[in-house]
Specification:
Layout: H1 4-24, H2 27-34, H3 39-46, H4 50-62, E1 66-68, E2 74-76, H5 81-84, H6 93-106, H7 109-116, H8 118-122, H9 128-132, H10 136-161, E3 168-172, H11 178-186, E4 191-196, H12 201-210, E5 217-221, E6 232-238, H13 246-259, E7 260-270, E8 272-273, H14 280-292, E9 298-299, H15 300-309, E10 313-318, E11 325-330
Parallel strand pairs: 3-4, 3-6, 4-5, 6-7, 8-9
Antiparallel strand pairs: 1-2, 7-11, 10-11
């Protein structure tokens, strides 16, 4: 018989799809609002097929996302409700949808990579962000996934960054503003400018309006490969360097060094590998980076090495209670 670890490796794709469909069709919302319920009751309330739903619920219970009672009812497992609550900063639905609708299909490229090499295969493919931002709907889906992935932890990372007294921060590749919003909420004297591709502008404007941030949250359109970065006391990169190879990262960090005022700092916010190659989420997303971008995940020591090569010193690592952490470099 296969071990439980082998079972998880073989059948993980089923639980991911079950998670996505249960979120998409409001199953978690129903269970959280109405309490434990049978598949028949949930199916009737959500107007979905009972037999298919029951099979999905069995899968989710087998991976402890749901708990099944002796009376045949299901409930969301203790501690997981925030991850399925669309109003919670921990909500993961948008990110799971991205995994299912985008990442899963692209994993087929790995076979080609193994036989021909990534450089050869990618030479025939469009650039990563030409795919991600190829139209408004694709841009919206990606930015929603990034918000789900980033906003909750950003509240903690903003605290770890210690930005008291900092007046200006430029969030490089800041998307629709997850870290910017968290930082602005914590530091009332701070102003943030998101620097990102022009296609992101309308989505950042929606965030500014919805969050009531008015003049404190700005947008600077540009391409960080072609344009200089806006000057600031602090520049931040959240899930940016993991998109690129080491040389490109150092080039970007040198631009950040030039834009950073004397005595300022740069913040890197990334998943981090442990020395033993874990955790699983980082290892899995490292594989995702291989097919969706040109980058990889790294250890804290590797990120500190990139910072030092770009000229930054006093490099420190600050670990959060989530799976995204903070590395800080200072400009002398």
């Amino acid at each position: 018989m296969p071990s439980s670890s082998l079972d998880r490796a073989m059948f993980g794709m089923f639980s991911t799809h079950a998670l996505h469909l249960a979120d998409k069709h409001g199953v978690f919302t129903q269970l959280m609002a109405g309490g434990p319920a049978t598949p028949a009751a949930v199916a009737a309330a959500r107007r979905i097929d009972e037999e298919t739903l029951e099979r999905l619920l069995v899968v989710l219970a087998s991976v402890s996302v749901l708990e099944r009672g002796t009376d045949g009812t299901y409930r969301v497992a203790d501690g997981l409700s925030p991850f399925f609550d669309t109003e919670s900063p921990r909500y993961i639905g948008g990110f799971v949808r991205h995994l299912v609708t985008n990442t899963t299909g692209r994993l087929e490229q790995l076979d080609d990579y193994l036989t021909r090499g990534k450089a050869v295969v990618d030479a025939d493919l469009p650039a990563p962000f030409d795919v991600i931002y190829h139209d408004e709907e694709a841009t919206r889906e990606f930015l929603e996934a990034m918000w789900n992935l980033s906003f909750g932890v950003s509240e903690e990372l903003a605290g770890l960054a210690g930005l008291d007294g900092v007046r200006d921060l430029v969030d490089v590749g800041g998307a629709s503003g997850a870290f910017a919003v968290a930082a602005l909420a914590r530091y009332p004297e701070l102003n943030v400018t998101v620097f990102d591709l022009p296609a992101v502008g309308p989505f950042l404007e929606n965030t500014r309006r919805e969050q009531g941030l008015h003049d404190r949250l700005g947008f600077a359109p540009g391409d960080f490969f072609r344009d200089p970065l806006p000057a600031a006391e602090c520049l931040s990169f959240g899930y940016i360097l993991s998109d690129w190879d080491d040389k490109t990262c150092v080039d970007l960090l040198r631009k950040a060094y030039d834009a950073c005022t004397s005595g300022g700092r740069v913040l890197l916010m990334e998943r981090l590998f442990d020395e033993d190659g874990g955790p699983l989420a980082t290892a899995a997303m490292n594989l995702s980076m291989h097919v969706e971008t040109q980058g990889r995940h790294r250890t804290a020591a590797e990120y500190q090495g990139l910072l030092r090569e770009a000229g930054f010193g006093e490099c420190t690592t600050h670990r959060s209670t989530w799976d995204k952490h903070l590395i800080v470099g200072r400009k002398a």
